[in-house]
Amino acid sequence: MLRFSTAGESHGESLVATVSGMPAGVAVDQEFVDRELWRRQKGYGRGGRMRIEKDTAHILSGVRHGKTIGSPIAMVLANNDWKNWVDILPVEVGDATKHKAVASPRPGHADLAGSLKYDFPDARYVLERASARESAARVAAGAVAKMLLRALGVEVASHVIRVGKAELGRAATWEEIAALQLKDEVLLNCVDSEAEAAMKAEVDAVLRTGDTVGGVFEVVVHGLPPGVGTHANWDERMDGLLAQAVMSLQAVKAVELGRGVTAAESVGSAVHDAIGYEGAPEEGRGFTKFSREQNNAGGIEGGISNGEDVVVRGYLKPISTLRRPLGSVSFETREPVKAAYERSDVCVVPAAGVAAEAMVALTVARLVVEKFGGDSLREMQRNFNGYCEQIRAY
Ligand SMILES: Cc1cc2nc3c(=O)[nH]c(=O)nc-3n(C[C@H](O)[C@H](O)[C@H](O)COP(=O)(O)O)c2cc1C
Ligand SMILES: C=C(O[C@@H]1CC(C(=O)O)=C[C@@H](OP(=O)(O)O)[C@H]1O)C(=O)O
User: Fold this and answer.
1) ipTM (interface pTM)
2) Residue (of 304, 309, 312, 305) closest to 294 by Cα position
3) Is the Lyase keyword given for this protein (predicted)?
């Protein structure tokens, strides 16, 4: 089984990611991993921390001469900011000001719920791990999953379709989304420059007023054959697994598959994707002779991939750290105070999209490993190609 986990606090020495269950023989491209990490750091609206960090994954194990060897892959990502925090982090309980204590919890962050749960006098202990700094480690792990998927012809990419009230307002093609990932400048990771300018204006507005803004990203998986995931058990359905994976990202508050949200207010005949035969789909890899003219299902029916692009949207709430903070209560005096403010992002939709690509890639890779098996990539490719041949002949 393909599994991954992360460790590390935002201002601790390093983040760690481990990935196990990868077949042997997958080429690991360090440049690709670091470019994925670079993409997660970008986007208009990020705070000062992104000028301090330059993320790179140091691979410690599981790779030899540039290829996976079937053993767990461990990666370390240094936190450059750590050196500015070494005297601060070993917190002595009680001295709030000296130790960057966060003693007036921020509504929307993990501060209050986490302090209550773990019996901490100071939310610093909680927010260090709650911080989306952790998503950098997920992106390193996701890059490895992407390299496995790529070896089978499956690609994962994302774009931004809403920031605040500004939206893309049209469907983007796979080619447009794929081309975005190659750009050397990232503004809001939107395929349309006019919509992107409107999104930038949303960020500028909150920058002026000391507020924050959320939005929606879309992750697309291209080239996945039908038959990955299963309807047979609730916890093996691809839709459920993707929803959990993307929802687990910091600040994501809703996940949509295909046109799931608008489908709820439409009639069936307007939603479902009629099935044709002998017409190769315009997009996709033409795995079978069955075709669809539209993809409202988002590439999944019955928890099983149907051969169309898998389309997952993540809805982000606005960032909770506000320059003009909401009301809170002091942990020390229990008096009403303004919530804590510290350096913060104001818009992270493009970065969250990149982190969600990683989560989607890891989820799809896990299901692909389960379906096609194999201890080496060669064995897996043989199984994969044999299955593709079988469904072509269906
Ligand atoms: C890429 C990324 C960067 C983030 N940066 C910040 C930030 O600078 N300040 C902040 O308050 N929240 C930030 N967040 C969101 C918090 O981490 C998140 O709201 C918090 O951990 C509570 O979790 P929840 O929103 O999922 O309930 C960021 C989220 C992502 C995905
Ligand atoms: C460090 C990252 O994002 C951080 C996520 C984050 C939060 O509360 O989630 C708060 C901020 O941390 P800091 O106070 O150190 O600036 C962000 O910068 C990152 O994305 O790599």
Assistant:
1) 0.99
2) 309
3) yes
